[in-house]
Model the fold of this input.
Amino acid sequence: MKVEEIMIGDWISSPYGNIQVEFIYNNGYDDVVGEREEMYLDCYTGEEDSRMKDITIETVYPIPLTEEILLLNGFEYNEDFEEYLISIDKNVFSFEYDSVDDFYYFGSWIRFYHVHELQHLLRLCGLTELAVNFKIE
Done:
């Protein structure tokens, strides 16, 4: 993954299991080379007192979005239209699944494959609380 793809609150996969990003930083700037030094993350595993520090960006990967994760977060499957719906404050949001190419989409043109991408989309729709409190297990 690239650091530009990650936001605070995103769920990603690491050698330590699934983790939620709390802080993104680098260890300085190399004036000689003119490039950023290595990027790091401080993360949370979802269990009490389970903070992890100094996880390198090169060791993390996106978590594939699954039906189980959507259902765990309050989405409902509508078989008639092959879509996942969530209703919040009298607003209904739908995400459709393309089983041929194995991706989800919002509207007719926003495709996403991973949990962190859905979290970004939820934030853009004004559903920040759901994005931050997103469950993966």
User: Anything to note?
Assistant: The mean pLDDT is 81. Helices lie at 67-72, 115-124, 128-132.
